[in-house]
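Q: I'm writing a short explainer about VOC family protein for a general audience and would like to include a description of its predicted shape. Could you first generate the structure from this sequence?
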Amino acid sequence: MLLYVTLGSNDLERAGAFYDRALAPLGLKRRKEDEVEIGYGAEGDVRCRLWVVTPFNREAATIGNGSMVALEAESRAAVDTFHAAALAGGGTDEGAPGLRPFHANFYAAYVRDPDGNKLSAVCERPE
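A: Of course. Here's the predicted structure. Afterward I'll give you a sentence or two in plain language.
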């Protein structure tokens, strides 16, 4: 359903360092970049699915209250590693890895990037 997602940043260098580290456990890597954006995608995908950008209108990037990007993880261990990598890369904790009440196998972790954007990694597979 989604073609791609963009998240705003006021410091692409800092954001790139954070996302390089946090997205690696989910199989996503930096595939494109220039002075106004960085694109992340999975190996073999023809396009970047997550972009970190400076806003097109050149105004400061802001976060959306209630907005969040949830990324699929292949395993619970990948969720754990995502969370640890995000925190080590300058993110803040919004919910430690663990099962959530949405269904029996909904294992997730929540973080905010250095610009305040909220992210989640989710594995819906049994352990």
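A: For your explainer, you could say: The longest strand covers residues 92-99.
Q: Perfect, that's easy to follow.
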